[in-house]
Amino acid sequence: MVVGKMGDNKQTFLYMHAGSGNHGCEAIVTSTLDMMNGDEKTVIVSNNAEEDRKYILGDYEKNEKCTLLEENHIDEHFLSHVLYYGYRKVSGDKESFLRYRFRTMLKEIKRAKSQHKNILAVSIGGDNYCYPDMVNDIILTDRVLHKKKLETVLLGCSIEPSSLKGDNAANLIADLNSHKKIIARESISYKALLAAGIKKEKLALCPDPAFTLETGDVTLPEGFEVGNTVGLNLSPMVLNLEKADGLLLKSYRELVKHIISATDMQIAFIPHVVWNSSDDRDPLNKLYNEFKKTGRVCIIEDNDCKKLKGYISKCSLFIGARTHATIAAYSSMVPTLVIGYSVKSKGIATDLFGTYDRFVLPVQELEDSSQLLERFEWLRVKSGDIREHLKLVIPEYIEQARKNVQYLK
Q1: Which CATH number applies to 10-205: 3.40.109, 2.60.40, 3.90.350, 3.40.50?
Q2: d(Cα 158, Cα 351) in Å, to the nearest integer?
Q3: What are 78-88's pLDDT values in tens digits?
Q4: pLDDT in tens, 280-303
Q5: Same fold: 10-205 with 229-399
Q6: Cα–Cα distance between 34 and 63 in angstroms, integer?
Q7: How far apart are CA 168 and CA 403, in angstroms?
Q8: Per-residue pLDDT reduced to its tens digit, 180-219
Q9: Measuring CA to CA, which residue among 360, 338, 340, 347 is closest to residue 188?
Q10: What strands, in cross-sheet order, belong to the sheet with 42-46?
């Protein structure tokens, strides 16, 4: 396999990419590649390259804009799993599983180094630090790369401020300090990193790359009225974080009833992640099937991230649980309510509006279905003012987001 153009002296590897079935992950990688303008052939180290090839990255690979490398999956190889588990048990070498996982990447880096290329490894899983069960693998992966004398950059990260405090934060802070550069995508995380002792010169504050994502051309389904359709996104992940079982789905159900009875607006259910383990279509199809006989609802089929942004951009209002579905709405100047679960939604809303109050409804704070109805009505009444505000701030915000690639040079 040949990676990089003849005469190139630099090779960038994007790692911690979970796969394009999560169209937020796809949006980060795609928008970053678009901003790089093909200056080099970037290597995408993916948890599921076959999945990536179904969408935009498949075309980018064919057009030599990137190369897709698949991670090794130890759970799919019984003998390797047993051998590595035994070795780790005896040796205490916790990094061995990660060396196996990224073995193909490490071999390709070695090959690129033999061609005297300068290597930069970019961790694009900035979201991952919001999920406690993933942090240990991130730390171990970074250790593996740093032992190979590689420079790493953390792109588009959000960090829960609480995770940077207390005795258990030392390993995380040490990992963050090991990066050449950390690009926080919102100010709450940026300030928390500063407060945790990360040096200011190591930090940058720059909006999520996906704010720059192109808007795809789409053919609207029957029942989707441009400028008079509420886009609704809901995810199994956020359903798992609710206080009372079934409350969020009930809240969405009551909201749909309210929109149908109290307005003339249509409703489009828009999935943004279609993994078997976490498929937005599962809860959205339940709602669609309940209300399809009204003639007021439609459901958007799975598409790549640019086309999904195309559908979202045609909405008059948007309510979403997936961060990058809401980024698609914000960047299209669509008034948006986020059903949040972590610092990232609060931070992005704060940077856009000066506050996240009313713009974010944390699922952990949802206690009654009337809360979502009240937030929707506020959004509907204030939609004109919100849209005008977004028209003022989003162009500059997108320009700021374009600066992400400056830190990858």
Answers
A1: 3.40.50
A2: 13
A3: 555 446 556 55
A4: 999 999 999 999 999 999 999 999
A5: yes
A6: 13
A7: 33
A8: 999 999 999 999 999 999 999 999 999 999 999 999 999 9
A9: 347
A10: 66-70, 42-46, 10-17, 118-123, 151-157, 181-184, 203-205
DSSP string across 2-53: --S-TT--EEEEEEEE--TTBHHHHHHHHHHHHHHTTSS-EEEEES-HHHHT
C-beta of residue 105 within 8 angstroms of C-beta of residue 13: yes
For 53-70, what is the mean pLDDT? 96
Distance CA(399)–CA(388), nearest Å, equals 18
Apex CA 329: angle with CA 299 and CA 159, to 5°?
115
Strands (E), 158-243: 181-184, 203-205, 229-232
Question: Where do the domains of the chain lie?
Answer: 10-205, 229-399
* Residue 248 neighbours by CB under 8 Å, 6+ apart: 234, 238, 239, 242, 339, 363, 366
Select from 312, 305, 330 the least CA-distant residue to 268.
312
To which residue do tokens 């010169």 refer? 201
Give per-residue pLDDT as tens, 304-313. Answer: 999 999 999 9
Is the distance from CB of 373 to CB of 379 less than 8 angstroms?
no
pTM above 0.90, yes or no: yes
Residue 282 vs residue 8, higher pLDDT: 282
Q: Identify the CA nearest to 8 among candidates 91, 120, 156, 116.
A: 116
Residue 230 identity (one-letter amino acid): V
Q: Please give the structure tokens belonging to residue 319.
A: 């309510």
Cα separation values, 158 from 30, 175, 257, 344, Å: 19, 14, 35, 6
For 229-399, which CATH class?
alpha beta
- Greater confidence (168 vs 60) lies with 60
**Cross-strand bridge partners of residue 275:** 278
Is the pLDDT at 1 greater than 50? The verdict is no
